[in-house]
Amino acid sequence: MPSTSFNTDSNIFHKIDESAANDIINLGRIREIKPKGVLFEEGTPATHCFFIQDGHLKISKTDMDGNETIVRYANPGQITAAISIIQQQTYPATASAVDSATVIEWDKDSLLKAIHRIPQLAINIMGLMAARIGELQDRYQELNHERTDSRIAKALLRLVEQAGCQTKDGITIDFAIGRQDLASFAGTTQFTFSRTISKWEKQGWLLTGREQVTVVSIEDIVRVAEQT
Amino acid sequence: MPSTSFNTDSNIFHKIDESAANDIINLGRIREIKPKGVLFEEGTPATHCFFIQDGHLKISKTDMDGNETIVRYANPGQITAAISIIQQQTYPATASAVDSATVIEWDKDSLLKAIHRIPQLAINIMGLMAARIGELQDRYQELNHERTDSRIAKALLRLVEQAGCQTKDGITIDFAIGRQDLASFAGTTQFTFSRTISKWEKQGWLLTGREQVTVVSIEDIVRVAEQT
DNA sequence: CGCTCTATTGATAAACCTCAAATACAGTGG
DNA sequence: CCACTGTATTTGAGGTTTATCAATAGAGCG
């Protein structure tokens, strides 16, 4: 049950007519990535830019001690590695597929040419980038000043918002995601994360399973997210 | 001794010839902001986009408990509030001048038209946005996994890099900045910050004064920044 | 010289991480 | 269908970093 309905406001083809959009798509190459497959790796030369057609990517950074920080989850309709359009640099993070994903891959020059022909494309990409800056700033602030409880709640809400899937018990996340990844996304450890959500499960706010979480009572999670 | 030399690579007028650049500038309006003056406030409608010609802006978010998070310091040559080009939204942060600053202010429509005429402008702005995303991701990771020592060192290095000014004793920051702001920028409290830098001052790595810090031994600060 | 704003320092507390170990779960092959 | 193996998750105990609070000291300014 893939959530392939793009938000038109934050779509790179917003305000671009279908034939032009198809031209742009045809400049790229479709690629399938297997679960846990790596699309691009932090530190390698940034040559391509990707549009996510289906599936979900984990964008993460790993430091020298092996600590993984999940920068974001990238969802259908978004682009990633926009940096490669502009500067001859290296990818600042690693992208790997959480499930089976299909992306469209453009090389720098093709996309640059497309932008010169269709400036609206640049404006749309800027919109996506602005949204990411906003989200990163929010998460930075949260990590700085909020308790793990709130951050965990917010992390769950973000995932549910971006990849939520209604089931009979509540809303679950569209792809398999382990505690370690959830914890990294929330900016905490798997241990603290585990303790926190088992507390919530006892309250009946959640249902948990192996690599899976279902939010039963959104209101309660929102309340925790909102509290100091 | 203002550091008004823009880095051409990350300048919004990169690859744009002078007459076109002047056209773009003339679409805007020059504004002077007094020290501590507010340019735009978090949550208010995002109507304008700003180019910093001279001076430094503090971009910050303040939560309900009054905790200030300094998202970044914006320096000459950069733009801020790029979000207002694209979406009819509110500013995600507050910008205030740290010293006397002069900015060029564009309204959304003027800049949109300019982009449609000169797509290179969009590409340049995307470059600046990509740089900011990269920096935010770095800082997020640091806040997540590094000790306050390293973060404080990195904060000092960033400021020195962006607004450093060579003096006879070492490199000092171009504008007056108090401990509270330095601490916020490093993601810690004024107390921890104070303790840490007085330790470093005793080692002879720094000279400190009221609202002022001079880095004497960059190498030692770099070493602390680099350590786990 | 007093007033205000900024910075330092000490004592205390607590949130959170680290490490160790136990338990649950899913898939596999017998 | 069941035991087995590897992985994921939970739980506990203990320690450490870092925030919090309170109080003092210093700098600039009229």
Give a quick summary of the entry.
Chain A has 228 residues and is of the alpha+beta class. Chain A contains eight helices and twelve strands.
Number of strands of chain A: 12
Strand order of the largest sheet of chain A: 1-8-3-6
For the largest beta-sheet of chain A, the strand count, sense and barrel status come to: 4 strands, antiparallel
Please identify the structural class of chain A as seen in this structure: alpha+beta
Helix content of chain A: 40-55%
Element order of chain A: H for helix, E for strand: HEEEEEEHEEHHHEEHHEEH
- SS summary, helix count of chain A: 8
Question: Overall pLDDT of chain A, averaged?
Answer: 93
Strand percent estimate of chain A: 15-25%
Radius of gyration of chain A: 18 Å
Q: What quaternary form is this?
A: homodimer
Q: Report low-confidence residues of chain A grouped into runs of 5 or more.
A: 1-8
Query: What is the straight-line distance between the termini of chain A?
Result: 36 Å
Which two protein chains have the largest interface (Cβ within 8 Å of the partner's Cβ), and how many residues from each? Answer: A-B, 41 and 41 residues
